[in-house]
Design goal:
The chain has 211 residues and is an alpha/beta fold. The protein has one domain: Rossmann fold (3-Layer(aba) Sandwich). It contains seven helices and seven strands; from the N terminus they run E-H-E-H-H-E-E-E-H-E-H-H-E-H. The protein has a five-stranded parallel beta sheet, with helices on one face. A hairpin with a 4-residue loop joins strand 3 and strand 4. The radius of gyration is 17 Å and the shape is globular.
Protein backbone atom coordinates (compact mmCIF):
# COMPACT_ATOMS: atom_id res chain seq x y z
CA UNK A 1 0.00 0.00 0.00
CA UNK A 2 1.38 3.43 -1.03
CA UNK A 3 0.43 5.85 1.74
CA UNK A 4 1.84 9.07 0.31
CA UNK A 5 1.88 8.99 -3.48
CA UNK A 6 3.36 11.92 -5.41
CA UNK A 7 1.55 12.64 -8.68
CA UNK A 8 3.41 14.84 -11.16
CA UNK A 9 1.84 16.15 -14.36
CA UNK A 10 4.21 17.00 -17.20
CA UNK A 11 2.57 18.90 -20.05
CA UNK A 12 3.75 21.01 -22.99
CA UNK A 13 3.35 21.29 -26.73
CA UNK A 14 4.03 18.53 -29.23
CA UNK A 15 7.81 18.20 -29.60
CA UNK A 16 8.56 20.42 -26.60
CA UNK A 17 10.77 17.86 -24.89
CA UNK A 18 8.33 16.32 -22.39
CA UNK A 19 9.53 12.79 -23.08
CA UNK A 20 13.15 13.87 -22.58
CA UNK A 21 12.30 15.38 -19.20
CA UNK A 22 10.45 12.24 -18.14
CA UNK A 23 13.27 10.00 -19.37
CA UNK A 24 15.87 11.94 -17.36
CA UNK A 25 13.75 11.64 -14.22
CA UNK A 26 13.26 7.92 -14.76
CA UNK A 27 16.98 7.32 -15.31
CA UNK A 28 17.72 8.05 -11.65
CA UNK A 29 14.88 6.03 -10.12
CA UNK A 30 14.08 2.30 -10.17
CA UNK A 31 10.87 1.22 -11.90
CA UNK A 32 9.61 0.00 -8.57
CA UNK A 33 9.38 3.63 -7.39
CA UNK A 34 8.18 5.59 -10.44
CA UNK A 35 5.73 4.81 -13.25
CA UNK A 36 4.54 6.84 -16.25
CA UNK A 37 0.97 7.20 -17.45
CA UNK A 38 1.29 8.65 -20.98
CA UNK A 39 -1.68 10.54 -22.34
CA UNK A 40 -1.06 8.80 -25.67
CA UNK A 41 -2.29 5.51 -24.21
CA UNK A 42 -5.73 7.02 -23.62
CA UNK A 43 -6.70 8.06 -27.14
CA UNK A 44 -10.16 6.79 -27.99
CA UNK A 45 -10.33 3.55 -29.95
CA UNK A 46 -11.21 4.22 -33.60
CA UNK A 47 -11.39 0.65 -34.89
CA UNK A 48 -15.04 1.22 -35.89
CA UNK A 49 -13.95 3.82 -38.47
CA UNK A 50 -12.54 3.12 -41.97
CA UNK A 51 -8.75 3.46 -42.13
CA UNK A 52 -8.98 6.63 -44.24
CA UNK A 53 -11.06 8.37 -41.55
CA UNK A 54 -8.78 7.13 -38.79
CA UNK A 55 -5.78 8.75 -40.46
CA UNK A 56 -7.58 12.11 -40.34
CA UNK A 57 -8.15 12.05 -36.57
CA UNK A 58 -7.14 15.25 -34.82
CA UNK A 59 -4.95 13.91 -32.01
CA UNK A 60 -4.35 17.44 -30.70
CA UNK A 61 -8.01 18.06 -29.78
CA UNK A 62 -9.25 17.16 -26.28
CA UNK A 63 -12.16 15.17 -27.73
CA UNK A 64 -9.70 12.57 -29.05
CA UNK A 65 -8.88 11.51 -25.48
CA UNK A 66 -10.80 9.36 -23.03
CA UNK A 67 -10.25 11.58 -20.01
CA UNK A 68 -12.82 9.67 -17.96
CA UNK A 69 -10.69 6.53 -18.08
CA UNK A 70 -7.42 8.36 -17.39
CA UNK A 71 -8.94 10.14 -14.37
CA UNK A 72 -10.37 6.86 -13.10
CA UNK A 73 -6.99 5.15 -13.42
CA UNK A 74 -5.13 7.89 -11.54
CA UNK A 75 -7.75 7.79 -8.79
CA UNK A 76 -7.48 4.02 -8.50
CA UNK A 77 -3.70 4.13 -8.32
CA UNK A 78 -4.00 6.79 -5.62
CA UNK A 79 -6.23 4.40 -3.66
CA UNK A 80 -3.58 1.69 -3.93
CA UNK A 81 -5.30 -0.32 -6.68
CA UNK A 82 -3.64 -1.69 -9.81
CA UNK A 83 -4.89 -0.76 -13.28
CA UNK A 84 -4.73 -2.08 -16.84
CA UNK A 85 -3.26 0.71 -18.96
CA UNK A 86 -4.46 0.70 -22.60
CA UNK A 87 -2.05 0.33 -25.52
CA UNK A 88 -2.62 2.58 -28.54
CA UNK A 89 -1.13 2.35 -32.02
CA UNK A 90 -0.64 5.50 -34.10
CA UNK A 91 -0.11 3.33 -37.18
CA UNK A 92 -3.61 1.81 -37.05
CA UNK A 93 -5.25 4.45 -34.79
CA UNK A 94 -6.73 1.69 -32.66
CA UNK A 95 -6.34 0.30 -29.17
CA UNK A 96 -4.78 -3.08 -28.73
CA UNK A 97 -6.72 -5.84 -26.99
CA UNK A 98 -3.66 -6.18 -24.77
CA UNK A 99 -3.10 -3.88 -21.82
CA UNK A 100 -0.18 -3.06 -19.51
CA UNK A 101 -0.65 -3.92 -15.83
CA UNK A 102 0.38 -0.97 -13.66
CA UNK A 103 0.75 -1.24 -9.90
CA UNK A 104 0.80 1.78 -7.54
CA UNK A 105 4.21 3.43 -7.09
CA UNK A 106 5.65 6.13 -4.87
CA UNK A 107 5.60 8.53 -7.86
CA UNK A 108 3.14 8.62 -10.76
CA UNK A 109 4.07 10.79 -13.75
CA UNK A 110 1.17 11.73 -16.03
CA UNK A 111 2.58 13.03 -19.32
CA UNK A 112 0.96 14.57 -22.39
CA UNK A 113 0.09 17.74 -24.29
CA UNK A 114 -3.46 18.05 -22.93
CA UNK A 115 -3.27 16.70 -19.39
CA UNK A 116 -3.90 20.14 -17.82
CA UNK A 117 -7.03 20.63 -19.93
CA UNK A 118 -9.22 18.42 -17.72
CA UNK A 119 -9.96 20.01 -14.34
CA UNK A 120 -10.50 16.65 -12.63
CA UNK A 121 -7.12 15.41 -13.76
CA UNK A 122 -5.37 18.62 -12.72
CA UNK A 123 -6.88 18.37 -9.25
CA UNK A 124 -5.22 14.97 -8.73
CA UNK A 125 -1.73 16.33 -9.41
CA UNK A 126 0.61 17.46 -6.63
CA UNK A 127 3.05 19.15 -9.02
CA UNK A 128 2.18 20.48 -12.47
CA UNK A 129 5.09 21.05 -14.88
CA UNK A 130 4.86 22.72 -18.30
CA UNK A 131 7.76 22.04 -20.66
CA UNK A 132 8.15 25.05 -22.95
CA UNK A 133 10.05 25.35 -26.24
CA UNK A 134 10.15 27.60 -29.30
CA UNK A 135 7.73 26.70 -32.08
CA UNK A 136 10.59 26.13 -34.57
CA UNK A 137 12.30 23.69 -32.20
CA UNK A 138 9.07 21.83 -31.62
CA UNK A 139 8.38 21.55 -35.36
CA UNK A 140 11.84 20.09 -35.97
CA UNK A 141 11.27 17.39 -33.35
CA UNK A 142 7.77 16.65 -34.68
CA UNK A 143 9.11 16.12 -38.21
CA UNK A 144 11.84 13.75 -37.01
CA UNK A 145 9.53 11.80 -34.68
CA UNK A 146 6.60 11.40 -37.10
CA UNK A 147 8.85 10.22 -39.93
CA UNK A 148 10.77 7.71 -37.81
CA UNK A 149 8.08 6.49 -35.41
CA UNK A 150 4.84 6.98 -37.31
CA UNK A 151 5.87 6.39 -40.92
CA UNK A 152 4.72 9.77 -42.25
CA UNK A 153 6.25 11.78 -45.08
CA UNK A 154 7.71 15.26 -44.56
CA UNK A 155 4.88 16.81 -46.59
CA UNK A 156 2.28 14.94 -44.56
CA UNK A 157 3.87 16.07 -41.28
CA UNK A 158 4.03 19.72 -42.38
CA UNK A 159 0.43 19.62 -43.62
CA UNK A 160 -0.73 18.17 -40.30
CA UNK A 161 1.29 20.74 -38.36
CA UNK A 162 -0.33 23.68 -40.14
CA UNK A 163 -3.81 22.15 -40.17
CA UNK A 164 -4.09 20.77 -36.62
CA UNK A 165 -0.96 20.83 -34.44
CA UNK A 166 -0.31 24.58 -34.56
CA UNK A 167 -3.93 25.80 -34.20
CA UNK A 168 -4.74 23.21 -31.51
CA UNK A 169 -1.61 24.17 -29.59
CA UNK A 170 -2.69 27.82 -29.57
CA UNK A 171 -6.28 26.97 -28.66
CA UNK A 172 -5.93 24.14 -26.13
CA UNK A 173 -2.31 23.54 -25.04
CA UNK A 174 -0.67 26.96 -24.60
CA UNK A 175 -3.53 28.33 -22.44
CA UNK A 176 -3.03 25.52 -19.89
CA UNK A 177 0.43 26.87 -19.11
CA UNK A 178 -1.24 29.10 -16.53
CA UNK A 179 -2.05 26.03 -14.41
CA UNK A 180 1.61 25.02 -14.11
CA UNK A 181 3.50 25.24 -10.83
CA UNK A 182 6.79 24.99 -12.73
CA UNK A 183 7.61 26.06 -16.29
CA UNK A 184 10.71 24.54 -17.89
CA UNK A 185 11.99 26.70 -20.78
CA UNK A 186 14.30 25.23 -23.45
CA UNK A 187 12.52 21.87 -23.24
CA UNK A 188 14.61 18.85 -22.41
CA UNK A 189 17.86 20.86 -22.56
CA UNK A 190 17.25 22.72 -19.29
CA UNK A 191 19.41 20.59 -17.01
CA UNK A 192 19.03 22.95 -14.03
CA UNK A 193 15.22 22.73 -13.96
CA UNK A 194 15.26 18.99 -14.68
CA UNK A 195 17.79 18.51 -11.88
CA UNK A 196 15.43 20.24 -9.45
CA UNK A 197 12.63 17.89 -10.46
CA UNK A 198 14.93 14.89 -10.11
CA UNK A 199 15.80 16.02 -6.59
CA UNK A 200 12.13 16.31 -5.60
CA UNK A 201 11.37 12.83 -6.91
CA UNK A 202 14.47 11.29 -5.34
CA UNK A 203 13.79 12.87 -1.95
CA UNK A 204 10.17 11.72 -1.97
CA UNK A 205 11.12 8.15 -2.89
CA UNK A 206 13.85 8.01 -0.24
CA UNK A 207 11.44 9.16 2.45
CA UNK A 208 8.79 6.65 1.39
CA UNK A 209 11.24 3.73 1.29
CA UNK A 210 12.15 4.37 4.92
CA UNK A 211 8.55 4.16 6.11
Amino acid sequence: MINNMLIIGIAGGTGSGKSTVVKKIMELQPETDVVILPQDSYYRDSSHLPLGERLEINFDHPDSLEFDLLVEHVRRLKKGESIEQPMYSYLTCTRSVETIPIAPRHVIIVEGILIFYDKRLRSLMDIKVFVDADADDRLGRVITRDIVERGRSVNRVLERYEKTVKPMHLQFVEPTKRYADIIIPQGGHNDVAIGMLQSVVEKHCNVQRKK
